[in-house]
Design a protein that fits this description.
single chain, about 160 residues, alpha+beta, Homing Intron 3 (I-Ppo) Encoded Endonuclease, Chain A, 2 domains, two-stranded antiparallel sheet
């Protein structure tokens, strides 16, 4: 398997418009949920690798932003080249800076929908799934599942 095939084997490709989630193990992500992939002995963010594989070189001084706001997403259609200033403007425009007062699905950083949160709580009560398994199932960090179950997040 070549490097490109190895990279895409770690991405859960779904529909053309859906997020393509980086599915490598926990040590394949940084503390903020961004996927990481080793290229020529250098660890790079998975979304940047996906962008380069699809669109070519990233221009100097540019970053790769997620239009979907999902750090695990590697769908090239969701990746946009921009500046740090563009990224900050996007964050402010979407109300993702600090606490915006928006809760649940209205929060610009929310990845899950209310019905998914309810399903997580129901599945956990069955005792068939642990936090890690539910995180994998729903494409979020284990700590997010813990927060949902303990009602530290999605309190309402």
């Amino acid at each position: 398997m070549n490097r490109i095939e190895r990279f895409w084997s770690k991405v859960d490709k779904k529909g053309e418009e859906e997020c393509w989630i980086w599915k490598a193990c926990d040590d394949g992500r940084d503390g903020r949920g961004y996927g990481r992939f080793c290229v020529n002995g250098y660890m790079d963010y998975a979304h940047r690798v996906a962008y380069r594989l699809t669109h070519g070189k990233i221009n100097e001084g540019k970053i790769i932003m997620h239009s979907c706001d999902n750090p695990k997403c590697c769908n090239p259609k969701h990746l946009i080249e921009g500046t740090d200033a563009d990224n900050v403007y996007d964050m402010l425009r979407k109300g993702r800076y600090g606490y915006s007062g928006n809760i649940g699905e209205k929060n610009g950083r929310a990845i899950l929908k209310r019905e998914q949160v309810e399903k997580i709580r129901i599945l956990y009560k069955t005792t068939k799934y642990n936090h890690r398994e539910l995180g994998i199932m729903f494409g979020v960090e284990r700590t997010t599942i813990t927060g949902i179950i303990n009602k530290k997040i999605w309190k309402d």
